[in-house]
Structures are given as C-alpha cells and as structure tokens.
Give the backbone structure.
Amino acid sequence: MKMIMLQVTVLLICSVFQAHSEVIRLFGNPYPVHIPFFKVYAPFDFRTEADFIASSAVTGVTVFYNTGGVTNGRLLRLPLIPANVLQNGADIVAVITVGLGVGGIGGDSHPQFYLSDGITGLGFQMREESTGNRCRGRVATMGNVLSSISTVSGATHISSVLPDEFVLTVKPQRFWGSCYNSADSGMIYPVRYTRTISASRGLWLEVYRESTSERYTFNYIKVEIHEN
C-alpha cells in the first residue's frame, strides 16, 4: 500500500513539473528575475544587455563614448527588474559599482548614473573639480535628455583627481543614498533625496553625459539589488 502511494505521489509531482515546464515553454517564465539581483556587466555586455546605448566604441576591456551628442543626453540604459516584480513601497537597496577608465582621456569627465523606474531617477554625478564635490547627489526625470534635474547636498571633499572606481548605494524608500570613491584612501558622500521611485514600474540603470565636450570610458558596472 505504501509503495502504491509513493508511486502515485511521484507521478503527481512529475505531472505538475511537466505542466509547469509546458507553461514556461508557451508563455515564458513569469519570474525571470529574482531578488536578490546580482549582475556584472563587462564591456560587450553593454551592447547585448542594454535596451539603449548611444554611439560608442566597445573593446574587450572598455566602452568609450566620444564628444558630441546633447547636453545631459542618455548614454546607456540597462534593464534590471521587470515591471510588477516589486511592489511600490518595497524597502530595496541598490548597490552600483562603476569602474571608470580615466587615464589619458584629458579634459572634464562628469558622467551621471541613476537608478530609475523609467520616469524618475535617483543617483549621482561624478566630478573631478578643485572647488566642489567629487560626487553630487542628483534627482532627475528620465528621457533621451534629462529634465527637472535637482542636485541634493552632501559632504564636500575637494580634489582635482577623478577616482577610477565609485560605489553608489541608493535606498529609494528612505530617500537616502551614498557615494563612495577610491581616492585618498576612500571618501563617502551621503545624501538625502527629495523624491522616490515606483518600484512596480520596473528598475533600470541609466547613464547620462553632462557636456557635449566630455568623453567617457567605462570598464565595468556591477549591480546588486536586495529587498530588506
């Protein structure tokens, strides 16, 4: 009797598994992305993973954007979490590590990185000024060109050197973010955002230029998203 029940149980499990597999085959996996989310984007991944990438030169180790385009124009958009995976109000934290190749570029290089829901973005702008912050917290409305940009205050550290690695942390529901960079034994810039994002719309990582005279080189981007 026990053997018969075991056989029936195994048959039921196999039937459920086959039915689930058939649903995925016909309609696709309804949950293709899971939390926690972790992904490292090497240069060629920018082309294959992005749903938008501006004109650029991709090699095995770098992605290079030359001068041109428009002021505050979009350079890159990477889809992270699809719509309806997260609920609005979800207490998430995104950690974005950016490797910049700045050696030999010359001139200014002030890229902007945002965690966005496709409409609003929370992020930071990297700078190498001798008169202001190396990281500037920013809130903006997304698009081919940024609009409604506001700079949020944070700690100030004066330097004329742009570090080659930044770690950006954003907690949208707490209106909080921080920017760590590798220069001068490490500096941290915490900020308080004035807006938040709607996670149910989905999440993207979006990268923008500042000036048309600037050039940018990115070596890699690493993204982690956790739900507390």
Residues 1-30 form one domain. Residues 8-14, 19-31 have pLDDT under 50 and may be disordered. The longest strand covers residues 216-227.
